[in-house]
Amino acid sequence: MEPDNLLLDRYILAQTGRERPRVCFVPTASGDSEDYVSRFYESFRQHACEAIHLPLFKARFADLESFVLAQDVLYVGGGNTRNMLVLWREWGLDAILRKAWRRGVILAGVSAGAVCWFEEGLTDSFNIDAPPRPLKCLGLLSGSCCPHYDGEADRRPTYRDLVATGQMSGGLALDDGAAVHFVDDDLQAAIASRPEARVYRVQMTDGGTATETSLATTFLGRT
After folding, report:
1. 111 is catalytic
2. Does 47 qualify as catalytic in the annotation?
3. Which of 30, 125, 144, 148 is catalytic?
4. Can you give the residue ranges of every domain in the chain?
5. Per residue in 33-55, pLDDT tens?
6. CA nearest to 22, candidates 74, 68, 65, 72
């Protein structure tokens, strides 16, 4: 999302502890957009890594599980979360990703690639002209996630209302440029590539409202 800002990408690569980690871009949510794939390679050429991508619409791997488990980082792109999850289940990639997570492969992503790891995500995958709705996701991480919290006008009020009314479990809301770092299923840090970007915890109260608590978010640009 930020081709001129490499802070989050560098942070992800640093977690591998490898000099040249294998980074695999998963562009399923965009329908394996060739432009998106090209932008991934253009960006990651600036890093010390071995970049590759995983196409499902024009598959070119001999064995999907072996291919996925050979990576150090799986970086999932944005797009239609609902369609992505349907296709992953058809290929059995959802189960393979769970195995990769248990083996210590780093799972990362933006937008659809961020919410997919949680039990629920707020998405406009059902109708881009209607308010976003809850979607059941992979469930590696408990609770829900809302991306684009400050980037799309209807995200914040819709998420707060769904949590307040019990239509969606409480969870984490991410401004554009903000991210959360989990180890296993434990939240380790909230980080950001922009000074103003924040992570919030949104929970239902006994009175049927939603509380929004800003988490301490570290701007990665500070030395």
Report:
1. yes
2. no
3. 148
4. 7-219
5. 999 999 999 999 999 999 999 99
6. 72
